[in-house]
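--- STAGE predict ---
source: upstream dedup step, 1 unique chain passed
mode: sequence only
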Amino acid sequence: MSTSYLNIELLINTPGRRRLELSRCFRSFRFGRERAYNRPMIHENESEKRAIYRDALAEIDSLLTDLLDPIAAMASAASALHARIPAASWTGFYRVVAPELLRVGPYQGGIGCLEIPFSRGVCGAAARERNTQLVQDVHAFPGHIACDESARSEIVVPVFDRAGALVAVLDVDSREPAAFDEIDREGLEPIAARVGRSWPVATDRY
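--- STAGE serialize ---
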């Protein structure tokens, strides 16, 4: 099911937000369709690459205005990013669901790992160390988990709620070696921060 239809189902069960949410979901569907048919394969120009993230952040920020729904926020962000990042083979989120444990959340791409402990893999390292992991060769990364055997490089960004608690990680994989760099880090970290603001603040986070 597409993000657009998921958003429509959510809005039907949310009185008082119908017009605003309809506008969001149709705008997301339109943008996603345009990107699907016109997606470039390679962006070697740094300014173009920065523009991808600048535009993605603007769209995500617009979609998430006044939204305190982490599932809808993650689904929208994963869709917007996956359609824009040429090298991405998998784009999505793993949520913190228990102490030292991540579970797959909304994503785009092939089937993801169901659960990842903080002690393993690139996602686990991002959660454990609470900072971005930029990996040029995943097969050389200690404890790498091969959710996708063809993945070659990866970037994972921690997601924090408004109180600074770790709530998820944003994961982007590529089947190309060394697909991500500091521009990707600089582009994805503000997006992860924006998604994190869609979590209601709680006092009992893991």
